[in-house]
Write the structure tokens for this entry.
Amino acid sequence: METTITVENKDTLKTLQAFLKSLLETGAVEALLVPMRTPGGTVTPALVTDPRLLDQADPLAPVLPVNSADLACKLSVRQPRAKIGVVMRSCELRALIELTKMQQASLDDLTLIAMDCAGTYSVPVYLKKTAALQPTELWQELFQSAASQPEQPKAELRLACQICEQPVYAPRPDKDIVIELLGIDCSQEIHLALPAELAARINEKWSVEGSNTYLKESQPGGRPSVVDKLVATRTVAREVEFASIRERLEGEGASEAEGIARVFAACIRCHNCMTVCPICYCKTCVFKSAVFDHEPMQFINWAKQKGACRLPSDTMLFHLTRLNHMVLSCVGCGMCSEACPSELPVGLVFRAVGQRLQSTFEYAPGRNFEEPLPLVTFKADEWTEVGE
């Protein structure tokens, strides 16, 4: 059901907070996983059960300190569990769907609340910008720019956002909630897509309280055209970045392995990219085990074989194993690049490699919960189909 909620006093965030409070107060959910503003001005996900504390909720903040899909997994995979609403961007929700297919999460008791996304800044850039601008001005600027000048993306946005061709989430009918912000004057109204029964329950509560706020049925406005233009712009930017990284990986007559070795030459094997990746879900990782705690003489033997031995060792094996493990399900959130102390283009490599693999299997990660993972689906003629 498409609905509209009127924004009072042009305070979009307060109106959105009131809607989130209603989800708790009506019993639609028992808790909300939502970005919350801290006393220090940063934003971090938090699990909220007290509606009064949602005055500090800020899901509009254009910053992504962590992909919350991993947090939702921890809250949903085991019994007993509560009914929880998760407020997330498209990349987070698509990662959550992939993890559900891997049986690392369950959607049975989760209410997915999707936010339209005009892009996010890295945490340091966000803090620098909010020192000069009010947080409200910052996200308003992004959404206005996305609507009026989609062909001129903000250069300070995270690269993953500049090339993200899925700024909105495709909801499951009559199950998910979508907070629609692109192509809408959010100072006047917010568009919501949500189950009709839930809209009726919220309106009944607000009516009893004598509130001037209510949900009314509406028709989609200019959002589709704005989204189409934004997607077209980001797709062009994506192809430019993909061409550049593929030249580094495959150019100058080098083998692909040699190219990858050059790109990842500065890797210190800190495992940060693996730690923040929502798709790397293994409870026991071989790279955090004793398997790679080599004896001292092993390093000496390797050094004698070639005259020198790179340290830390096994960096290429680490990245190639990760590529093999999860690149088919990579949703392009870019958290790996954000976490890399050497500023390696980890996310861009994974997206560029992933695009080819995903295209081969005609698979889009997070597109549809019912779409099976190719690597766990046996088809006798599969390799004939892809030309092998």
Q: What stands out?
A: The beta strands are 2-6, 31-37, 43-48, 84-89, 110-115, 177-180, 189-193, 215-217.
